[in-house]
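Dear H.,

Thanks for agreeing to be a second pair of eyes. The structure we're designing against is below in token form, covering all 233 positions.
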């Protein structure tokens, strides 16, 4: 028995007025249209997230650094967070604590008397960022030579790189690079962090963004037997 062929009139993309399509061709046209629309919808549903903090106007101008950025190496004072429950500033400035790790910085611990940060080179010119609580080192972050560079615009440290499945509340796949740029004058160490990320939320919806934040840490005055030398004069 011969089957009847049904035809429909379609007006739209790839369907000139008056063109007749069989049901089979109509299905192919729908698939073709969907393949064009879906990427556009995903792109429109994508998320761009940018938070860029300008250099605080109350701060001094950023100094020009030497050829080896040796100025940034030394000791700096750290402050407790301004609000209870927040991390200490250096935790974000230097990405000190890896994801999922126990945090040894003892935030909001009332028994902590002093907090200091030390930035130093080792014999192979790798950068070490050490954290001291009450004079004892509790954490050391190692940054290999290949992840650091220096020019007159500061010491640039790649603090963290991530590729593949990212750590978040919902599954996503992408890349994330966190870079800190360091400067120093007579009074402060200045740190600007730049976090750039891009990927696919739930492996489908694209996202991208840039976060920039500024921090500064007072230069720690030289001490002898616990007494600051600058207070003796």
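And this is the sequence the design step returned. I haven't edited it by hand at all.
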């Amino acid at each position: 028995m011969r089957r009847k062929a049904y035809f429909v009139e379609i007006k739209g993309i790839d369907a000139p007025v008056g063109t007749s399509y069989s049901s089979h061709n109509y299905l192919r046209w729908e698939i073709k249209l969907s393949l064009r629309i879906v990427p556009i919808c995903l792109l429109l549903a994508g998320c761009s997230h940018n938070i860029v903090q300008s250099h605080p106007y109350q701060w001094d101008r950023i100094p020009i650094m030497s050829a080896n950025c040796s100025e940034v190496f030394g000791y700096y004072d750290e402050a407790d967070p301004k609000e209870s429950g927040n991390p200490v500033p250096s935790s974000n400035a230097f990405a000190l604590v890896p994801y999922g790790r126990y945090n040894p910085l003892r935030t909001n611990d009332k028994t902590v008397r002093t907090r200091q940060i030390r930035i130093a080179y080792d014999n192979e010119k790798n950068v070490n960022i050490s954290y001291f609580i009450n004079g004892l080192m509790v954490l050391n972050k190692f940054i290999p030579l290949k992840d650091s560079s220096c020019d007159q615009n500061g010491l640039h440290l790649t603090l963290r790189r991530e590729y593949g499945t990212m750590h978040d509340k919902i599954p996503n796949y992408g890349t994330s690079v966190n870079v800190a740029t360091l400067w120093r004058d007579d009074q402060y160490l200045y740190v600007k962090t730049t976090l750039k990320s891009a990927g696919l939320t739930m492996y489908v919806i694209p996202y991208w963004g840039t976060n920039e934040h500024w921090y500064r840490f007072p230069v720690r005055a030289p001490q002898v037997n616990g007494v600051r030398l600058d207070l003796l004069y």
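Two observations from my side: The chain has two helices and 14 strands. Residues 10 and 62 are 65 Å apart (CA to CA).

Warmly,
E.
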